[in-house]
Amino acid sequence: MKITPSHDHVDFAIARKYIGQLLSDEDVSRRCINDSGCLVNASDFNGLDRFEARIKIISRLCDNGKYGGTMPFPEQQLKICGRTGDLIEPVLKKQWFVDCVAMNDTALAALEEGTITVLPRSMQIHLENWLNRKEPWCISRQLDWGQRIPAFRPHSSDRYVRLFSRGESVNLGFGFPGWPDRRINRVPLSVLETGFDIAGFWVARMLTVCHSLTGFFPFTKVLLHGLVRDDEGKKMSKSLGNVIDPLDIIDGVSSQTMLQRLDENAFQGVEKRKAAISLKARFPEGIRRCGPDALRFALLRHDASATDINIDIVQEASEGLRFCNKLWNLCNYAGDVWDNVEGEVVEAASSDRIEDRWIKSRLKSTFLVLMEKMGSDRPHLAFAAMYKFLWNDLCDVYLETTKKALWAKDRERLNVVAGILHEVLEKSLVRLSIFMPFVSEYLFDRIKRKKERNLYDLCLTEKTMDAFTIDNELEKEMHSVLEIIKTVRSLRVLFQLSRRDTLQVACQPDAFDLKRFQHVIQDLCNVTLLSTVPKISSCGRFVPFPVHGYSTKIFVALEVAFADGCLMPCVRGDYEAQIKEKLNNQLQSAQSRKDQFLCRIKKHEMLAKNCERKDLLDKHERRITQVFQKILPL
Predict the structure, then answer these.
(1) Which residue from 346, 353, 364, 554 puts its CA 20 to 30 A from 534's CA?
(2) CATH code at 97-225
(3) What's this model's pTM, rounded to 2 decimal places?
(4) Per-residue DSSP letter, 279
């Protein structure tokens, strides 16, 4: 077979193995194409460009009657330069190499002994595979735009020369202060966080080179995040037009500017048109300004340890912006509460009200979850806990229970609420600053009562929340209450009931004293809890609804209400007719579907009765069983 070691990676490996020598750049006799892409040692075709020579060689073969025709090769993949469109072909060149076997073995031993840990654990194999490679490390690559290597081959083997000129040393690339004359102290670094796709090019090289030069590893823990892709799972590529510059999310950018950048790139033809079409379709109005914290929000919503992170960065950054707006409104509401307090806002006094004890307990529980998740290198779960507390617990629940006191100017109640809000907000913003520092610091400066208090000082000094205690039983009961409230709200949407209609509701079974939560339920969903659970004989006057995740059912009163254990006439609200009409429609729909299924059963029974083939008989019996299973829920 023909072999061209100077122009093919596989052929070069074969030649090195069987010929037993490396092919030098000066050994022109073994080459057929020079660095300019022109033929050498080719007789009449010397000096011709390789593409031009191919045409003339085919013409010469045809003239001599030696041409055997072309043969398609659909599996061949040509390497085309994305910038210039040129065909890329390898050529043998001199390079600078580093023998990495000994260095890699040292790093591998550290991984096996646990001196260096890689998270997630599955990625450690990826790093080990890189370190197990025996090929020398090419550090030059001799590119026209590459870095010049400050090393020279001496003509004399018994002396060494130190070079001092800027051109000889290229200080920008290798001028580490004082090295190698001054010993480098251990760097104050313990963790490296980077992408798994550069574990070999970056992480492995840092471990091996640093230990070889200094005697210690630059870090002991490596966190590898996955590859960030677009919302369709495609790798971000300029030619696809799906690359998002983080600065565009932070500062915003117009669609015209994005297209103008595309024109400035080296793309031509089809790739450029595809990228332009993609940009116009995805960002017709450009990208709105979201800020750095909204960008962090978008990234923190995903598990960084996943191999692939599919993210619609613009959409999720917009969600982050809405969260920032929610925090702004939260602090504005707290300011309204403080404005209605007589005198200076003081620290939260002890309160026996359920919602006050609950929000303090939830803050302490959230803090413990945050610390545990951050300690286990899962920041997305830590942020999710903080986000849930601020949005769901503080804004959607606790604040709603305080609005009536604010509207009524209840000074006594507002004094307690003001202290709790101040303490909870301060501690929450301190923890949130880990993830969203700018908005946290700005809002902290707005709400703090002592000018000397600094958010970052508190972040470093406040490691616990000893003043707060966790009440697990209360949190469990409150979770049940919130599920009941969600069910009632769903019923209002389902039956299109007004928020102003006060529903009379009973719960069964009554696992705990719901009456203690009467004011919370009333504030959040405008419901009156009946003191007695309806008996079976009276259930016709109630509509039962299940509570998601619990065996509890709630019964919405239609015709009677229970008060002090006695049946009393109930003034019918507008919601009674709406509920009955909706239920009647559902009943008619269910009955209609049931009749259709029964007809299908009769059809299959008749076909099975007259069927002689066993396979068809089994088929009809299966269909009958399937239809019966569909009827059961009806």
Answers:
(1) 353
(2) 3.40.50.620
(3) 0.73
(4) H
